[in-house]
Each structure stands twice: as C-alpha cells, then as structure tokens.
Design a protein that fits this description.
Layout (H helix, E strand, L loop, with lengths): L29 E6 L2 E6 L7 E4 L5 E6 L5 E8 L13 H8 L12 H19 L4 H19 L6 H7 L4 E7 L4 E8 L3 H11 L8 H16 L2 H13 L4 H4 L6 H4 L4 H11 L5 E7 L3 H12 L22 E7 L4 E9 L4 H13 L6 H8 L5 E8 L3 E9 L6 H17 L5 H18 L2 H14 L3 H5 L1 H6 L3 H11 L6 E7 L25 H8 L12 H4 L1 E5 L2 E7 L5 E8 L8 H8 L10 H10 L3 E6 L4 E8 L3 H14 L4 H18 L3 H14 L11 H6 L2 H10 L6 E6 L3 H7 L28 E6 L4 E12 L5 H11 L6 H9 L5 E7 L7 E11 L3 H13 L5 H17 L5 H13 L5 H8 L5 H11 L6 E6 L6 H5 L3 E4 L2 H5 L2
Parallel strand pairs: 4-8, 9-13, 15-19, 20-24, 20-25
Antiparallel strand pairs: 1-2, 3-4, 5-7, 5-8, 6-7, 10-12, 10-13, 11-12, 14-15, 16-18, 16-19, 17-18, 21-23, 21-24, 22-23
Helix pairs in contact: 1-10, 2-3, 4-33, 5-11, 13-14, 14-19, 22-28, 30-33, 30-35, 31-32
Length: about 1000
C-alpha cells in the first residue's frame, strides 16, 4: 500500500513529565555499551530505551524494549523508494513492495522445479512486451503472458506469506513505499519471534515475482484510484513544481501510466539486488522482548546477507524560487488551495525549526491560522503542515474557501498570517504553550509500541540523529521570539512559494490504465509448502489470554446523583473526562449545530480566542460532539492541570453567550460545507448505505432543510448548550485519580438542587428489512466504480459472537481471506475488496451484511458477478479455516485491553447487554467450529439473499440493462441522499 502522504517527521521528547511548569533540561548524549557479545549505541535519558546495533554485514538493528503487552511492533525498512526508481521505470520500488509478498523458491510454490521454467518464460515475454510498440503485436504477446501465467499459477500458492503471518497471530500485515523508504510492517505476539524471523529471513533471500500479471492489475487499480483523488493529484503537482531538479518532483511513487503499462521484471530484480542489501536496511522493533537475545536472533537470521556498495544519489540543488510558481488541478471535489515553501532536509536544525513554525501557525487551538482564519471563520478550513524529507522539506499550507471567496482570496489571507510571523505579531506565550503540548504528546507517543517503532524507523530512513530528535523539546524551550522572526523572514516571503489551485471541473488530461484481458488463475487454497509446515512446527510458548473483569477493572461511584464510570491510569499523568448524554441528533436536529457553534463562543468575561489560548496553555483539549443518540462533552490533558481544565469547560458551557457575527459566519460556512459534502464520493456512499439500512427517511438525511437552516437563531443554539448543565448525564473518567479523589475534587456541572431537564423524545428510525434486490445509484465524475452490498439481518445475539468472529476471519477479513484471494488474487478485479457480517451498535439493533469492491468501470460486471458468487456459495478450504482459527485465537491471547480501552470495552458491552468480556466466549468456542458451521451460517445469513447494491460511479460508464439485472434501480438525487 502506497503511503503517499506520510510525514516522516516524528519526534520524541524528554522523560516522564509530572509538571509542565518546570522544564527539566537533560543531556541526550550518545554512549556505547556491550552485552552478550554485541556492541550497541544508545542515547542517555532516552524514554524509548532504544539500542542501536550495526551488524558485521552493515545491517542496522534498532530495539526498543517494553513490558506493556506481549506483542512486538516490527518494521523492516529499506532506504529506497520512488526517488531511486530508474527514470525509465518509475513506480518500480512500489511494484517491488507488492511482489515481496509473493514468496520465494521455498514458499509460495508447491513445485518450484515445474514453476520456474514458466516464470522464466513470463520474464522473457514481459521484456518483449516492454520493447514492442505495435499494438496488435503487444496484444498477442499479452495473450501469451496471460496463458503462461495461468499455467504457472497452477504451481503457485497465493497469499502463502499472509497465511504464514496469520498463523502466528500477526496483525497489521502491510507495507508502504514513499520517496526514500520502503517499509514492511508486522505486529506479532512475542512468542512467535523465531517463526517471524525465519519467514523474514527467507522472504528477502530470493524473492520470486510470481502471479505478476494479476498483481500488476492491482497496481493499475491503485493508480486509477489516485486518478480519482484530487488531493493526490494536487500534492503531485506541488512536488513537480517545487522540485524540478530532484526525483521528488520528477517521479511519482506509483509511476507514470506509460511505465505501468510497460513493466520489466528484469529491472525490478536489478533494483532489488542493488538496494535490498544489509548496509541499506534496518530492522526496527518495539515491544516485549530481551534486546540482547533479540539481536542474536536477528544476526543469525540476516547474517547471510552480503554488504555491497550502493550507487550514489546525486542531488542537484534546486534554484531559489524568486517568483510564485502556479499550478492548477481539476477534479470533482470542492475547491481548495495549497501553498508550499521549500526548506532544508530532515537532518538539519532548520527542519526541526520548521516543525515549530508549523505549530505557530496551526496547532488545533491557538496558532495564528487557528485563531485568525478558522476560529474567526474567515475560511471554511485552513492549516499548515510540515513535510520533512531527507533532501528537502516543505511547509504546506491549505485553505478552503467559504461562500463567495475565490482561491486568490484564500491565498491572500494565508499570506497575511505568514506576514504576521515575519513581523512578530504573536505572543511569546505561544512558544511556551507549544513546548508544553509537545511534552504532553511525548507521554502518549511513548506509551505506544507502534509510535516508538515508527519514530525510530523514520529517523533511520531519513538520516536523522536520534539524539537530536530526543533533545527537540528542550531545544524548543531555548528558542526566542526573535529566533522565529528571523527564521520566518529567511524562508517565507510573498514571492517564494508554489501555489496549487484545486478547481472543480473535468480533468481532460487523465488517462486511466486500461484493463487487459486476464483469465482467472488458480489460487490453490488447500496447498501448503514444506517451508510453511516447517515454520508451523517450530515451538512456541503459549500466551495465556487476559480477560477484562468489568466488576473489578471498572470503578463506579456517584457525584451526588450522577453516575461515574472510571478506569484508573497507573502509567502516566494523562486524563480524559467525558460528560455523556443520552441525547443526540435524533432527539434534536439542532444539537450538532450547537456543538459545533461552541467552538466560536466565549462568555461575558472571556472571548472565544481567550478560551482557546487558555486550554492550549494548559496542554488541554476540549470538544463537544453530538451523534445520532449520544452527545459527549470531553476534556483531556495532564492531571496536574485537571482542576483548571474542568473549571474552564464548566465556565464555557454554563456561561457562553450569543455572538451574532460568529453565528452568521458559522451558518455561511456550514452552507458551504453542505455543498462540499455533495462533492465527496465517500460521503455520498455513506448516504447510500444509510438509505439502504433505513429507507428513504434515514439518519443521514435527517437534517435541516435549507429553509429550516435559514430559520435557526443563535439564541436557540446557546440555550441548548446551557441546557447541558442541567441535563442528566454520566461521567466517564480515565486518569490517575482514584474514584474517591475524583469525587472529592470534581464539582458537579449542574448547580443547585432542582430537577433535571426532561430529554426530548427521539425520532425513531427503524432498520428496514431487506426483502428484495435493489440498486441505489449515485452519479459522480470518477474513473472507478464503487459498489457496496448491504442487507439487514437479525437482531443482536451474543451467542453468535464465536461464529461471526471466525466467519469474518475466514471469509472476508484480510489478505488471506476467501474474498481477497478470489476477487483480487485470482481474478484481478479490484485493488480493494472485503466482506463482513457486521455487529450492531446496541442490543435490539440488527446485524448487517456488507461487501465492497472498488473497480474500474469496465470491470464492473465481472466484479459484481465475482462477489455475488462468493455471497451465494461459500468456498471450502480446510487450510484457510485452520489458519483463520489459529490467527483469531493467537490474536486474542496476546491482546491486552488496557487503560482507556477498558472503559471503551465496558461501554460497548453495556450497550449490547453483555456482562462479561465477549472475547472469552470467542476464544473458547471458535476453535471447535467446523466448515459445516460456517457453511450453515453463510446459508442462513448471505446465500441467495436479497441485497441493496449501493453504487457510486459515473453513470454514463455503466449500462442500464446491466444494473437492471441486479434489481430495481433507483437513481438518487443528491437532495434525496442528503436531505437538503
């Protein structure tokens, strides 16, 4: 999966923080030590306790141990990405990422001796195809590629890598390619390390590029998805203009259409042999392990790799931008503007300063853009984001116009905020607040295995010194206002930027990758390589599962007559406090408007801007969110500032006053947002799903009409906000305080002894029984067609949990599932596809069946037929079923629900009427289920059942007779979908 917009600037800060008011300056010095025969480096006062090893062959190993849960987050990173693609084979690094899931001569094959000659033929055919320009000849060559590929596939075992990892209980199996990194990701139980390393060592030994033409089709789909993505096209336009001399701008991660259509397996293999060498790779782990033992295992695994020289990447300096460079991108989504400024690369001090500069502009609360453009409602939305890469970095600013604004208006407003930075028109307190918030963020990041491993991996691939990352927070505290002014004047002016205008319209330059004719291949579900059998046979110590005991792990108390549900945070100083109300949009359409309006309100004594600054200064956050049936008022931050944070939110809720100017601007922005929603395909699909679930009148379109919106008064919204202080609610708390201390220190939100306000009766929405096939069709200007199958099933029954969990794992839950193997691996009909039997939100609601395919419009019929076949007839695979069982059980056994997740688990169980941790039932009963049990479940819930087909596509690309074969067709207008 291409992680195109991944920012690699992840920082880690000083050690445990007990008070944000006292700066503890520490030294972060490199030291060296030895243990178990291995020398490693480390940084003093590193909260991640990372050890940095360099093995004899040059392989970097970075290990960050922790005992929080019996799992390990792993990254295997190569310092090679699209930047090092050959200019005549762009997209090659990304191709290779996909192919490294296909196995070697030891796994992924059931008879390598017979498979190899066929793969050699395919290699030669692709070289011939690549060098042939005559279209008729190319067609003939491709037909031969398809024929030989079908023969070769008879000896391949599709997705055996995924089966290997699933059999270990791995989660998050994935990879991504960016400009200068390709990274392979696994989250594994700590008792399968030997198995994991054995697979990874083999994976990179001799990768075989089998099943290439179907995987190539998946990459085509990924490219076509990008052609429908306005944001991707805008970012690519930004890079092209910003970096004309660097491959950041010359090449894209996925590559050009022309190069995708002319792949070379020979070139991909040469790329692997050049860059996948130990002195260019790193193994990064964070989790529960002994680092001394782990480095021995890694050395034994990857010691066979041989160090070799790497081709130099010569950076041609970019010329100074002296005049604005303008680009224009067209697409169906709402208009917006990107502005970009160039900065030095990741390892420089200026790149660190860039992160501070971005926070000065946007931090979600008190930045110049936050306050002057968003909170003041001069723009619909705006933000500043650092994009830090090895050679260069960028500051990217985005602005979304409100009604009546041009993109040039947006640009001028953003440039004016940059001018304020240059002139020093900001408070010095903002710098202090940023430092405090960074220290708070360090606590939560360091608590996560994934965040720790990702930060270490990013520093490795971008060449950043880890000690400088750790010292960043302390360095910030030394920066003065004058430093920021000088830095802003050095890099930002009114002329040295790139502007990308994303306008609405049809992009006439888009040429999609056309679907070649592919004969479905054999996926050999029942076959297993000897290698897989050997890995499965390796010993592992069992991990005992740990269940939540809601009677012990969740505390309950009373604050007067208000229920408190709490979980104590015994790890750090972070807290969260939520006032939860059993009232939502179904009770009152105005609630969500009121919740969002609060962001722009103050009291008689304090402005909205002052509230934002105070919350940010305390390193605290607040939010009010209103869903269909619940509304939450939430605050979070450091326990040392608990009292002040709660006092602030109480003051704001109880005493907020009408701001008519803010109200009028808010309604204007809301109208623009409603227009923009109709120009977003994902939002349109959400509307179709709601229509399928509930019918023509549904929660999605249960909203204010345009006329009703015009009639709303600011006073009505403020009254609703005040009512929250006098409405019955539940307090949800996660933090260091015991419930006794919490009750003692927390003042009730309600003042006085009067009765609570009566909650308005909710609009009832009943889920419609799915009794006949229907097609809900929405037109959207796009290259792909997206299809979602939906049907309502029976009401919730906890006894079904083991069957549903195993069925989802087996049928449609991952890359090794029946759906993925059939639709993508065998038939090459989609890049993204899945299916599930979905659990309801609460008891009394219905389960739902869902399935999805995003495919090229010319594959629409084949894709629909392919999914319908699976929904009607469940394929049998004893090996896939066993893998699904083992994966499910090992994942549950090594899962530890801790901290605030305990609270979330309890609330979810309460909504469903469960008194105990439902995972225990799944763990004990799922292993005893048979294929017959799943077959019976599939027949009862899916097979030959009616479905609602929710389709978002450019309707002119679909034939009406094809749609009518599926069921009664209803083409919905946007007003029918959205309710306005």
């Amino acid at each position: 999966m291409n992680k195109f917009l991944k920012s690699i600037f992840v920082v880690y800060f000083v050690a445990f923080l007990t008070s944000i008011t006292v700066a503890q300056v520490k030294n972060y010095d490199w030291k060296e030590s030895s243990e178990g025969g291995y020398t490693y480096k480390y940084v003093t006062n590193d909260p991640t306790q990372a050890r940095f090893y360099t093995l004899k062959n040059g392989l970097t190993v970075i290990l960050s141990p922790s005992k929080k849960e019996p799992r390990i987050q792993t990254y295997i990173a190569t310092k090679a990405g699209s930047k090092t693609d050959p200019k005549d084979h762009t997209g090659l690094a990304h191709y290779l990422e996909h192919l490294l899931f296909k196995g070697t001569d030891k796994f992924g094959t059931k008879d390598w001796a017979k498979e190899k000659p066929l793969l050699d033929q395919i290699d030669a055919l692709y070289e011939k195809y690549n060098s042939t320009s005559d279209e008729n000849q190319r067609k003939q060559i491709y037909e031969e590629i398809d024929r030989v590929s079908g023969e070769a596939a008879k000896y391949a075992i599709a997705n055996e890598y995924d089966k290997l990892m699933s059999g270990m209980g791995a989660d998050g199996t994935n990879a991504f390619t960016s400009f200068e990194q390709t990274v392979y990701i696994e989250d594994i139980p700590n008792n399968v390390v030997d198995k994991y390393l054995a697979v990874q060592g083999e994976r990179f030994r001799n990768p075989i590029f089998r099943l290439f033409h179907t995987e190539l089709e998946a990459v085509y789909e990924e490219k076509n998805i990008g052609l429908d993505n306005d944001n991707r096209k805008s970012i690519e336009a930004m890079f092209e203009a910003m970096f004309p001399n660097n491959n950041y701008g010359r090449q894209t991660v996925i590559g050009t259409v022309e190069h995708l259509k002319n792949p070379s397996l020979k070139a991909i293999r040469e790329y692997f042999e050049t860059y996948y060498v130990p002195n260019n790779m790193g193994v990064i782990m964070s989790g529960d392990f002994d680092p001394t033992e782990m480095v021995k295992k890694i050395d034994a695994t990857f010691g066979y790799m041989k160090e070799q020289s790497l081709p130099p990447y010569v950076i041609e300096p970019e010329k100074v931008i002296e005049e604005p460079i303008l680009r224009e991108v067209k697409g169906p989504n709402a208009e917006y503007l990107f502005l970009g400024f160039r900065f030095p690369g990741a390892a420089t001090k200026d790149a660190q300063m860039l992160n501070l500069l971005a926070n000065m502009l946007t931090n979600g609360s008190a930045g110049l853009i936050d306050l002057n453009l968003v909170k003041s409602q001069k723009l619909l939305g705006a933000g500043a984001f650092p994009y830090v890469l090895k050679d260069y970095s960028m500051l990217i600013l985005q602005g979304n116009p409100t009604q009546g604004q041009s993109l040039d208006d947006v640009k001028n407003l953003i440039l004016a905020e940059l001018n304020k930075l240059r002139k020093g028109e900001f408070s010095e307190d903002l710098i202090t607040s940023i430092v405090n918030n960074e220290k708070k963020s360090e606590i939560s990041r360091n608590d996560s295995y994934k965040a720790r491993a990702e930060g270490l991996m990013d520093a490795f691939t971008s060449g950043v010194d880890w000690s400088s990352e750790l010292s960043y927070s302390d360095n910030l505290s030394k920066i003065t206002k004058q430093d920021i002014i000088e830095f802003a004047n050095k890099y930002l002016n009114d002329r040295n930027y790139v502007a990308v205008y994303k306008r609405q319209g049809i992009d006439e330059n888009v040429v999609k990758v056309i679907k070649p004719s592919i004969t479905p291949i054999t996926v050999n579900r029942e076959d297993q390589s000897d290698f897989l059998k050997r890995i499965d046979a390796l010993p592992e110590n069992a991990i005992k599962p740990v269940w939540i005991d809601y009677s012990k792990d969740v505390e309950k108390a009373k604050l007067k007559d208000i229920d408190i549900i709490a979980v104590q945070n015994k790890d750090n100083e972070l807290f969260s406090l939520v006032y939860q109300y059993k009232i939502g949009k179904w009770n009152n359409k105005l609630l969500s408007l009121a919740a969002n309006y609060l962001e722009f309100l103050g009291t008689k004594d304090k402005s909205s801007e002052a509230f934002s600054k105070e919350f940010y200064k305390l390193a605290s956050d607040f939010s009010v969110s209103s869903g269909n049936e619940e509304t939450n008022i939430a605050v979070s931050g450091l326990s040392s500032n608990f009292a002040n944070t709660v006092t602030l939110i109480h003051d704001l809720i109880k005493n907020c006053v009408v701001d008519q100017a803010a109200f009028e601007a808010y309604i204007g922005r809301l109208k623009k947002s409603r227009i923009n929603a109709k120009e977003n395909k994902a939002t349109i699909m959400d509307g179709l799903k709601s229509y399928a679930k509930y019918g023509a009148s549904n929660p999605f379109n249960y909203t204010l009409s345009d006329t009703e919106l015009d009639a709303v008064r600011a006073e009505d919204l403020v009254k609703l906000l005040h009512d929250f202080a006098n409405m019955k609610h539940t307090i949800l708390y996660f933090g260091p305080k015991s419930t006794t201390d919490l009750v003692t220190s927390l003042q009730p939100l309600k003042t006085g002894e009067g009765v609570y306000l009566e909650i308005q009766k909710a609009q009832p929405f009943k889920e419609s029984p799915t009794i006949a096939n229907k097609v809900l069709l929405a037109n959207f200007n796009m290259k792909q067609a997206e299809v979602f199958w939906f049907r309502n099933s029976e009401t919730y029954n906890s006894a079904y949990a083991p069957t549903i969990s195993l069925f989802n794992n087996y049928f449609g839950g991952g890359m090794g599932s029946i759906v993925f193997q059939t639709i993508r691996e065998s038939k090459a009909l989609a890049y993204s596809t899945y299916a599930f039997f979905g659990q309801p939100f609460k008891k009394g609601n219905h389960y739902s069946v869902g399935a999805y395919i995003g495919t090229q419009a010319d594959k629409f019929n084949d894709a629909v037929v392919g999914m319908n076949e699976l929904l009607n007839d469940l394929p049998e695979s004893s090996q896939a079923l066993e893998t699904a069982k083992v994966s499910l059980i090992k994942s549950i056994a090594s899962e530890r629900i801790t901290n605030s997740a305990i609270l979330s688990s309890y609330l979810a169980a309460e909504r469903l009427g469960n008194k105990t941790d439902i995972r225990k039932d799944v763990y004990e009963k799922a292993p005893r289920l048979t294929y017959g049990d799943l077959k019976a479940f599939h027949a009862k819930e899916m097979s030959n059942k009616p479905y609602v087909y929710c389709i978002v596509a450019q309707t002119e690309n679909l034939k009406s007779e094809d749609l009518q074969k599926l069921g009664e067709v209803k083409k919905l207008s946007l007003e029918e979908i959205f309710g306005y």
